TrEMBL record:
Gene3D superfamilies: Chorismate lyase-like, Winged helix-like DNA-binding domain superfamily/Winged helix DNA-binding domain. The keyword Mitochondrion does not apply. Keywords: DNA-binding, Transcription, Transcription regulation. Residues 23-91 form the HTH gntR-type domain. Transmembrane segments: none annotated. This is GntR family transcriptional regulator.
Amino acid sequence: MDAVIEKLFSDHDLKSLRGDTPTPLYHQTYLLLKGRILDGSIAFGAQMPTEQHLAEVFGISRITAKRAMDELAAEGLVERRRGKGTHVTYQYTAEAVNAPLMGMLEKLANLGRRTKVRVLDLSEVTPPPMIASQLGLKSGEKAFRLLRVRSSEEGKPFAYYESWTAGITHGFTRENLESAVRLEVIKENGLQLTKVEQDLSAIAVSADVARELQMEPGEPALTLLRQSYSEDGRLVDILSCQYNPRRFIYRMSLGIDEYIGEQT
């Protein structure tokens, strides 16, 4: 893990750690690491970086790194054993709920047209090993990583997005992604989405996400992990969303037959 921890965090992530905010640096570091554990980037059973290595990567003191790791251990996300290091103990398996794909994609596209998007970071880079494996990428192959904030027409931010997209050859520019619907840009690259899987949960927002969504660090946010597949069955897009629950409600409508089919 020491060798790949840098790949899990962009310059944007690292610059979000600031000592001039009310939130202590150890808690900001804890929230960053917690986010990567909860989204599976640091998988169940993985060995966490040493405190010294964390300090070097994040530009913090070893004491600050230790407090961040202690927070993760206190929450039951990792287990620390003398002489054996620290390992991730968090494991989450979501149950799928089926819903009509076309209607959902139409609503997402409509949401994109009626709101405003600001791109925070756009880069074509080698993804973390877990993301690369999910996208079926070979060693060294790159994908687009995109950070965005979506706001209402009145300018109130309600969603923070991080996405990884493979198979893009054109159209992924800051200008396009702020003026066009991202799903339509993906479609223009010849990627026809035929299956989408979604997991819903909640997470405590990190300091940088809190700033963008006008929340307090550590506040719970509605989170959604969306995985989109092309017609040949390949996973081509992984989207992680965090929503300010005071400004956004996720609602799903199912026909009565679909609802009855989900009952056990």
